[in-house]
Structures are given as structure tokens and as C-alpha cells.
Design brief:
2 copies of one chain form a homodimer.
Chain A lengths: L1 E5 L7 H12 L5 E6 L1 H6 L3 H4 L3 E4 L10 H7 L4 H11 L4 E4 L3 H12 L9 E6 L6 E4 L9 H19 L5 E5 L10 H12 L3 E6 L11 E3 L2 H26 L3 H19 L8 E5 L5 E4 L5 H16 L2 H16 L1
């Protein structure tokens, strides 16, 4: 299995991504194709490891500040565009990138192309839960979507959840402002109806209180509300942890208190299993495209490569295509 | 100044609310009209305090589980409905309730009535910020609103913010998924344009990361996204604090650590000034209606009464009416 690895775009730099690709070789059998500045990539590899990878030289980088459409069209020498062209040609089985989400999404549409009958691709996120992890989508790609497209997002996520969680019939919750049927905005009201009538394992509405504690495998939302929830959670989490750190650092007594708590606190926070998945797919892309967080570290990125390999091996996209063809036929 | 106090609906019971109304007498000069079960209310008052309050006997209660419209129409003997009728008649200057938000909102429309030219009332929330507090609206009353109504919500919040923050020209941010103009869904894109063209002090988009750190006085959002943000923040906050508590309680060493941190932690969390406002208005109601949280305590509810008194004294509703009449004329 050949996996394209975009080495540019991680906060921690090329080295972290190169080392992650080698680390993943201990866990799965695959051929890493590292895309990025060849000299720098080589400088992070020892003799033995160089023979295990292929390198596609790419000097240019797409940044978060670049306008996605312009960048994808014009930065032909960027690692992301080069990787996507290889993917499109069939020269590899999937790709993973820590780079700009917007550019990756645009490239997945303009270069790689979409699955038939899926009008838009969705950004997925794995929420680290206290009971179990949850796939949330769309978390920011599509602002105003139809309930029909929402249902397709749910179907695609189901194919992915089967592989990620090893559940035969993954459950799907709808992000909403109340548990009861009849709550919500126009999108959520209509999508609720479609989910209820569908053959999917619909678990009803999920309130945002329960994002970290829900037992649903999938949470469906439109990209606006999904992005609002995601960024609210990140902001509150960051601010609260900041207040705790401040409390611990305020004097000698509190520093000692912090020291006594350290291990136990780490254990508690480790329940939020941030490292286990490492990356998540853009669902709707015709070939597997995984997005890792810009702040990814070696372990997380290696876990992302492992997830991508599982996704490829299980034939998630073929599964989605079959499902969407059926959908298309039903609509004819 | 006469203030109607709905004594039913608080998690801590009638006693907490009755005591709060007496506590507020130390801080402002007002006439409390306590609405609820007379015998119970009296049992929580001493001789001296009984002479300072009026009581309107009301045996029935509207619960959170009641359907708001049905409850407001049928539970004529409930404390909430009785208080609203008194308010409508002009027998008091404002009311405050810890009861069902949905019922309060419905009653504000069906019994009290709306301000001319304001099609819907909005639920406001005071976000405890790390830099300063912020008024957010709408946090759940109206799901799919027009950008024009959004602009009216912003105008009403401005009148309130002048009193709450003592700012001459309060700043208004728009809750959105990115800082740049051109981000967002249809509602936020159009509302951005209206705010930019208006005479309001528009501060641009506010990302949900920054809910607790923004310096904007007001954050405008539609009720769906606002409610999603609010409930996500509450859920993440609760879960993280739960993890910390768990870490502290796990053994003797960590309990000692927790003890050493206690004061400092309390001080850090006190920056999130949850008690200072205590309640927030339903904006759009023709007479002042304040909603306190169901989990309110004595201090918070007393603070809510003080805020309501300020709101009445400053003539916020008259200010809004003037503004909306001007709006109406401009549209003619």
C-alpha cells in the first residue's frame, strides 16, 4: 500500500512528519511517499530508513493564510498539489497532510474529484469522548447545506465508523438544541425527518452538552454549527486549562499542590484520547484524503497514517460509492 | 420602584428566592412583590421583613417540562402567569423569574406583548469573560431569523449594554466561523453587511474561540448557533472541571495537592464573574422581563434584581422604543 505524506504544514516542521512516517512502519506494512523539500527530508533520515521511503521533491508550500482556490490553482510546485496529482493519477492509494484544511478541501474537489452523487465533501473530526470517541461532521466545509446532503454525509460517516469503531451498525445523532423531536432550525427539523425515515441507525438529537459524553458513533451537523461547536469547545478548554495552570503557578504552596496532582491529572486528561486517531478523512473525495491537525506530533501523525491505511484496506470509499449509487438509483 | 419576583422555578426552592429579595433591599430601594405560595413565602420571612414585601398568592407552577404555549394559556393560577398579568396591567415596573425560559418567552409575547417594530423577542446571556463580560443574543429563542431582525437584536442589546457596562457606544461583534469578512453562512454574511452599513459600533466577526476573551460588549448570533455555542461551553466546562475533581479525589497525595491549590483555584475561577449579573433580560418584551438561571443562588438572584432595577431606572425599553420607531420611519 502506497501512502503519500505531505511533509509541509505542521507547526513542528518537516522532521516531525518524516519521523512519524518511519514510526508508522513499525505498526503497519506500507510504502511511504514523502512529498516535500528532498534535501531536508533526507537530512532527517538515516541510511537504513532512506531505502524504505520514496521522495517526491516539492519546494513550495501552501500556507493557512493562502486563499485556498488560488493556492491550489497556482502553487503547482507545492507539496500538497503535487501529492494530490499523484493521488488522482492512481500512483498511490491515499494521502495525508497536516496543511491548510481549506486548501486540502479545495484540492480534494478540484484535483482529486468527488464521489459520484455527492455534491460536496465534508470535514470530519474525531471528538475525544469520555465514554467513547465520536465522528463529527461537517465541522466547517459547507455552510448552508440541504437536509438531503446532510443525509449523504451521515451515510458516508457510517461507512467510516464501521472501520474506525468496528461497529456493524454505527449510530447517528443529530446535533441540535434540544433532545425532543420538533426542536431546532429548519435544517435540523428536516434532517431529523430524513434520518428517521432512513435505514440508518438514528439515535435522535444530541445536545452540545453531551459532545464529550454521547454514546453515538456519529454526530451530524451542518458546517456552520459544527464549526461553532468545535471552536467553542477548543476555546473553553484552552481557557479553563489556562486558569488551572495560573492557579498552580501562583506561589510555592500551589506549585507543590500541582506537583502532587500531576500524575493523576495527566491520567484524567488522558481519558480524552487525543492521540489515538491522529487524523480524519475528508469524506466525499474520490480517493482517500486525510487531514491531520497542524499542531500534530510524531505519535499523533503516525496514528493518522495507521488510520488512513485501515481506511484504504477496508475499502471505505468503495463502500460509500456502492451506497451512493443505490441512492442515485432510488432517486431516478 | 415595584418589582415582581416569581418565587417558583429555582432548583434551590422558594426560600432562596425570598431571601434574595430581602438581600437586594440592602443594595437598592425597591418594593418587592413576591408571587407564589403565600404560606410558604411567609414562613421564610421574619416579622420585620414581612412588612417590606407584598405577596401575590399563586399556588400553581410552570415546569420546564410543560409545553410553553399550553402552560401560559392554561396555568392561569401559576406564579409566572400571574406576575405577567400584573406587569401587563402596569401594576409593577418589571419582573424576574428563575422559571422555564420557554414559558417566560411565550408569556412575554402572549401576555406582556412586544415592542412595536420588533417581530420577536430574544434571549440574552451574560458571558463571564476573562477580560470583561459580554452580552450574547439570541441564545435560543429564534431559530431561523432574518438579518434584518438580527440587526434589531443588536440595536436592543446596545441600549442594554449602555446601562450594564456604562459604555457610551458599546461594540458589537458577530459570532462567526472566521474573522475575515466573507466567512460564514447566509445569515452571517448578510448580517455582516447590515452591521457594517449601520451606525452601530461594529467590531467585525468574533470566533467562538474568543467567547471568553473577546472585548466586544455584545455578540450577535441567531438562536440556533447561539444555543449550540452556549451548551457546548457549558458541557466542556462541566466535563473538564469533573476531570479535575476526579484527579484531586483519586488518593491521599492528590487530595493534599487539591487542598494546597484550593484558594488559588477559587481565585482563578472567580475571574469568571458568574455572580455579578445574575440574570438577563428578554429583549423585545414591552415591559422588563428578566430571566435568572434555574440553578441561581441567593447572591446571584439578588444581583439579578439589582440589574433589573438598573434596567428599569435607565429606561432601557423607552430607549429601544425610540430607536425602533426611528427604524420604522426609515423603512416607511
Amino acid at each position: 500500500m502506497k501512502i503519500l505524506i505531505d511533509t509541509l504544514g505542521a507547526d513542528k516542521g518537516v522532521k516531525e512528519i518524516v519521523e512519524a512516517s518511519i514510526l508508522a512502519l513499525d505498526r503497519i506494512d506500507y510504502e511511504p511517499i514523502l512529498v516535500g523539500p528532498e534535501d531536508e527530508i533526507k537530512s532527517h533520515l538515516n541510511e537504513a530508513d532512506i531505502s524504505k521511503v520514496k521522495i517526491i521533491d516539492a519546494k513550495d508550500q501552501i500556507f493557512n493564510e493562502d486563499k485556498p482556490t488560488l493556492a491550489i490553482r497556482r502553487k503547482k510546485e507545492s507539496s500538497m498539489v503535487k501529492a494530490m496529482k499523484f493521488l488522482k493519477e492512481g500512483s498511490a492509494d491515499g494521502m495525508i497532510s497536516p496543511g491548510s484544511t481549506g486548501a486540502l478541501l479545495t484540492g480534494a474537489t478540484l484535483i482529486v474529484g468527488r464521489i459520484d452523487n455527492v455534491e460536496r465533501a465534508a470535514i470530519t473530526l474525531i471528538i475525544p469522548g469520555l465514554k467513547s470517541n465520536t465522528i463529527m461532521l461537517d465541522v466547517g466545509a459547507n455552510m448552508d447545506i440541504s437536509p438531503e446532503l446532510g443525509l449523504k454525509f451521515a451515510r458516508m460517516a457510517k461507512s467510516y465508523a464501521k472501520v474506525l469503531f468496528n461497529h456493524e451498525n454505527p449510530s447517528i445523532g443529530l446535533l441540535n438544541i434540544g433532545l425532543e423531536e420538533g426542536k431546532g432550525n429548519e435544517f435540523s427539523l428536516k434532517t431529523y425527518e430524513l434520518l428517521k425515515e432512513s435505514d440508518l441507525n438514528f439515535a435522535g438529537n444530541v445536545e452540545p452538552y453531551d459532545l464529550m459524553t454521547t454514546e453515538a458513533d456519529i454526530i451530524l451537523t451542518d458546517g456552520f454549527a459544527g464549526n461553532i461547536a468545535l471552536k467553542t469547545a477548543e476555546g473553553v478548554g484552552k481557557n479553563l486549562l489556562g486558569l488551572f495552570k495560573e492557579a498552580i503557578m501562583s506561589n510555592y504552596k500551589t506549585k507543590l499542590g500541582g506537583l502532587l496532582l500531576k500524575d493523576s491529572l495527566k491520567k484524567a486528561l488522558d481519558q480524552l484520547d487525543l492521540d489515538s486517531t491522529g487524523a480524519a478523512p475528508l469524506l466525499g473525495s474520490k480517493n482517500p484524503v486525510f487531514k491531520a491537525h497542524g499542531s500534530t506530533n510524531k505519535d499523533q501523525f503516525a496514528a493518522g497514517i495507521v488510520q488512513l491505511a485501515k481506511f484504504i484496506e477496508a475499502g471505505v470509499i468503495e463502500d460509500i460509492e456502492k451506497d451512493m449509487n443505490k441512492e442515485g438509483e432510488n432517486n431516478d
